[in-house]
Amino acid sequence: MEKKGSALLEHIVNNGLLTIAIGAAILYWYFDAQVSNQYLPRTLTVSLVVIYGGFTQYILNARKRAMEEKDRTQDQLIQSESLAAIGQLSAGIAHELNNPLAGTSSLVQMSIETLKEQEQKDKRDIDDELLENLEFSLKELQKAGNIVRSVLDLSRQTQTYVEDVSINRVLEDALRVLYNMYKHLDVVVEENYDSDLPRIKGNFANLGQVFINIIKNAVQALPDGKGTITLSTRYNHGKDRIVVECRDNGRGIPLEVQKDIFKPFFTTKEVGKGTGLGLYVSHEIVRKHKGSISVTSEPGKGSAFTVELPLKMGEI
What we know:
Layout lengths: L1 H14 L1 H20 L5 H76 L9 H28 L8 E3 L1 H16 L3 E7 L7 E3 L1 H18 L4 E11 L4 E8 L6 H4 L19 H11 L3 E7 L3 E9 L6
Parallel strand pairs: 2-4
Antiparallel strand pairs: 1-3, 4-5, 5-7, 6-7
Helix pairs in contact: 2-3, 3-4, 3-5, 3-6, 3-8, 4-5, 5-6, 6-8
C-alpha cells in the first residue's frame, strides 16, 4: 500500500507538474491583479516565467524517464536475444554431448568386463589396450565437460560489467557452442590469438553473445557452406585496447547496406530466417563496454568485423 502511494505521488509530481505551474501562475496573476490593478507587464511576465520553468522541468523529467526506459528495454532485449540464441543451439549441443558420453560409457563398460574375464590371467597383455581406452575415455569426458562449461558460461544472465574476462576464452567458447552448426560444412576456422592478451573488465556472457552472432553470420555468409573464417586477437598498446577481428571470404555486404546492419530489425535474410536483432544487440553490448564495432566488406570477396574493447570500461 505504501509503495502504491509513493508511486502515485511520483506520478503526480512528474506528470502533473506543468498543470500545477499553470494553476499557480493563474492564481498569482488573479490575486496580484486584484491588489495592484496591473495586469501587464509584471504579472504576465512572472506567470510566463513560472509556466516556462514548470514546462522545462516536465520535459527534463520526461526525457529522464525515457532514457531509463530505453536502458531497461535494451537490457531485456540483450537477455532475451541471448537466451534465444542459446535455445536454438540446445538441440545441437545435446547431440554433440551424446556422442562422447555414449562412446565413453561403452569403453568403460568394456574395460570392466575385460578386467573381470582376465582376473585369473596375466594382466600385462591387456595393460596397453586398457590404458589407451581409459585415456580416450578421459579425453571424451573432458570434451563433454568443456561443452557444458561453455554453455553455462555463455548463458549466465547477469548484467554486471566487472568480471575478469579472457577474450581468447570467450572466442573458444563461442566456437565450441557453434561447432555443431558448421561441422558438416566445408568450413575452415583459423584461430590466431595473442597468447599474451591482457584480460578486460566486462560481462563474459554478453561478450560471448557478440561473438556468437558475428561468427554465425560469417558462417552463413559463406557460399554453399564453403570458405575460411579467420579469428584474430591482439593488444593495441597505443589505445590500450583489445582488438578482435572476424574475417570471412564469403559473399560480402553491399556498400549501401553496410550503414544499416547495426540497426534494430534490419536483415537481408529471408523471412523467418533472421530477426534483424543479432548485430543490433551486439552493437549495444559493445557500446555498454565502452567499445566499438565496425565492418569493412567488399561484395564477392568477404567481410571483416572488428571489435575494440578498452581494458577497463572507464578508459575510452
